[in-house]
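[Backbone geometry]
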Amino acid sequence: MSTEQSLNCRLCGSPVVVNRDRYAVFEQMHWLCFHIVFEHDGDPDEPCRDPSCPQRHIEIFRWKLEQLGLDPDELIFKANYGDLDL
């Protein structure tokens, strides 16, 4: 049994693990939950203008993979099922 106090995200309710040291800074939330609530403008499934937006990163990686002639969806499928050496 862990002696550390459980810090749960006030938005999604899941434990905050990675950014525990910034729990108060992120209004008692995961960084991603904080980003969606306070920083992200528009639809959360669309990239926003914030350079650290995870949706923006996904779109950049998808675009670059397509430029390299690779199918992002196929790569993700293979990675999830162990058919891709990472």
Notes: Helices lie at 31-39, 54-67, 72-80. Residues 54-67 form the longest helix (14 residues). The CA atoms of residues 78 and 84 lie 5 Å apart. The chain has a mean pLDDT of 91.
